[in-house]
Amino acid sequence: MNIKKYKMTSSIASIMLVFVIVTTICLSPYFVYGYEHKNGVVTGDNVNVRTGIGTSYEKLKYGDKNVQLSNGHAVTIIDEGKASDGSLWYKVSFSYDVATLVGYMHSDYIEIKETITYEPDEDFEKYLEEQKFPDSYKEPLRALHAKYPKWVFIADYHDYTWDEVLAGESEIGRSLVSMNSISSWKSTDKKAYNWETGKWYGFDGGSWAAASEELVAYCLDPRNFLDEKSVFQFEALSYNSDIHTSAGLKSVIAGTFMANTRIENNMLYNTAIMNAAKQSGVSPYNLAVRIIQEQGTNGSGKCISGTVAGYEGYYNFFNIGAYAANGNNAVINGLIYASSGTTYNRPWNTRYASIVGGAQYLGSGYINQGQDTLYYQKFDLVGIPYNHQYMTHILAPSLEGPRMSEAYTDKMKQDTALVFKIPVYKDMPKEVAPCPTGDGSPNNALSALNVTGYNLTPTFNKFTYEYSLIVKNSVSSVNVKATALDSTATVSGVGKKKLKVGSNTIKINVTANNGSIKTYVITIVRQSDDEVVDDSTELPTDTDQNTEVTTEVETEKPKPSMKTKYTISDDLYISGVAPDTTVAEAKKKFTIKNATVKIIDNEGLEAKDKTVVGTGFKYIIYDLDGKKNKTYKFVIYGDVSGEGVIDIKDLLYVKLHILEKKKLKGAKLMAANACHTDEEVTIKDLLYVKLHILEKMYIVQ
Q1: What secondary structure letter does DSSP report for 695?
Q2: For residue 457, what pLDDT is reported?
Q3: pLDDT at residue number 279
Q4: Which of 94, 302, 563, 640 stands 20 to 30 A from 673 (CA)?
Q5: How far, CA to CA in Å, does 171 sit from each of 327, 392, 394, 584, 592?
Q6: How far apart are CA 199 and CA 261, in angstroms?
Q7: How do strand 65-66 and strand 88-96 relate by DSSP bridges?
Q8: CA–CA separation, 236 vs 609, rounded Å?
Q9: In 10 A of CB 65, how many CB atoms?
């Protein structure tokens, strides 16, 4: 391809005079002459900002908290200087919360962004089209191509939607982040965050929290990492003797405990890792980065100390099997793995044995199985997805990628046809997922909500956000009261509320300390003078409700098939399921051959056997290659909330739909049609649900 038509230009013209205005929490104002501003992004995790050049200066504060910036945070470099130790520091301006702050950061944690102008290259444009890269990928790829014309970018399409993968990777415990991270990086799911205490539950020994869906989305979105350093998380990791050299490896381990250091038999780490690469088929650069990631730049990880009591003389450089379980901490389990078994060169009673054996483990278990990029070793999409991930640290690929890029000199990058496999998902959002930056308490729940003198439907629960109430025509106003669960949160929308005849919507907003808002809604219906509910509506006779349907599902050979006594519609809905049916009971109704199956709940998680099947649950069939074959959705008539039972909450949902306050769709809309007609959901369906709850009649499934 002809790719020499691009050239580099400065991003901003030289600015002769800049006057920096700072607030009381920033530095004293002063003039900067002749410094050309540059755009940059932060490349570290929770990097401190200082009030001056060097670590001897205090950390910059915002309010009463230290300011920390993390991967992807944009900054403007407005000056630079050298600390007493000779290191380069940048003076940066950046957005933080609702303020613009100024401080100093070490240059190691900031990547300067160059702006590239170019004329279209017909060959490369044609290649992008052939690869079917979405438009949102093309601009950064053009920039990379302009600077490194020999690089090869492969669009790696997956048969999963963006929402499916995001839900799978956001499952609690699957993606973790440091407990010390800002609050917006940590999940507030009930399984991850204690809303009563305002504390996060600890994972993997207690120092890790479940990552928030927003952070997972940021790390999962490949478009966030298509710059010349971060793109290396997509580099193909198989060993290539034409690319991977001893000299390149020395660049990777420079400044770490492995640089010019010898292990057993007077062997250098550099030599040991190169040997491991050749035997395992894994890139030596990746092996080195993995060791640094797991054991630290100074090699302080306990799994390689060789001195842990009871496991003296054993080593586990890649922390394989090192996770808390069975009453042991991660280090002990890692050393149990190192000291037992005979596969992968075990027992690892020398450093060399651990490095070579660990490399073989990575090669056979991951890289040679298709998880051949840093990205895919975290976000596993091979076979049945998400079940074979090398790491749980959500930031690991984005942290390891830039270090991998340091393995290559700029000349090597120019001269080498490096291959990058870049994931593409179905139905990706048009906008690139942003990195969450908010901090402070995320608690925006209520501890109490009531309308004086009345009972809300359903009974108050801090995780239930919609309520209803019917009052007589004589009631012209009500008094709404609410109390925030967290003392730092604020509540609005309460007090005396006038009511008109008909439907009234009252919104109570709870604003957390970090600025996030949760809205509770009360729908109050003020009756007219002549409004009467007729409970004597004639009920239709029961016909054709016991039809048995057998459905065959065909795929590539071998063919999985499903036989069921439940009713399956042409649009892949499963009905005929009784309320309170468990997952285990539902599974018994199906015969599956040459396939595997999962039932997924309404939170996108695989449902446990004792879980009650609800409307909207998915029955997903995978073929023997682990590829999704077909997806069915359960419909339980009357169960509009998706909880598998028919109760007052379902009555509310049907009512809100009829009042056009909250329209139902898909499986939930079908479930609201309790009369089993093809007509719109009406008051008759509402009556059916009401009579079912009162046990005066039961909705036929």
Answers
A1: T
A2: 83
A3: 95
A4: 563
A5: 23, 11, 12, 21, 26
A6: 43
A7: unpaired
A8: 39
A9: 12
Closest alpha carbon to 608 in 616, 617, 599, 620: 599
Length, in residues, of the chain = 701
Return the SS3 of 613: coil
Q: Are 365 and 344 in contact, with CB atoms under 8 Å apart?
A: no
Q: Is the previous residue joined to 284 through a cis bond, with omega within 30 degrees of 0?
A: no
The single-letter code of the amino acid at 379 is F
What is the rounded CA–CA span in Å between residue 335 and residue 13? Answer: 57
Q: Which two tokens stand for residue 572?
A: 């892949």
Quote the CA–CA distance of 514 and 191 in Å, as a whole number.
20
Strands 628-634 and 573-575: parallel
How far is residue 650's CA from residue 203's CA, in Å, rounded to a whole number? 35
CATH 2.60.40 is held by the domain 446-526: yes
User: Dihedrals φ, ψ of 447, to 5°?
Assistant: -100, -15
Query: Alpha-carbon distance 475 to 527, whole Å?
Result: 9
CA distances to 60, 132, 279, 341 from 347, rounded to whole Å, are 49, 47, 17, 6
Query: Over the stretch 641-658, which tens digit does the pLDDT of each residue have?
Result: 999 999 888 988 898 888
- The pTM (predicted TM-score) of the whole model is 0.57
Question: In this structure, which topology does domain 538-701 adopt according to CATH?
Answer: Type 1 dockerin domain (1.10.1330)
pLDDT in tens, 556-592: 344 444 444 577 877 789 999 999 999 999 988 887 7
Q: Which CATH number among 3.90.226.10, 3.40.140.10, 1.10.10.10, 2.30.30.40 corresponds to the domain 6-115?
A: 2.30.30.40
Q: What is the pLDDT of residues 598-620, one digit of tens each?
A: 999 998 899 999 999 999 999 99
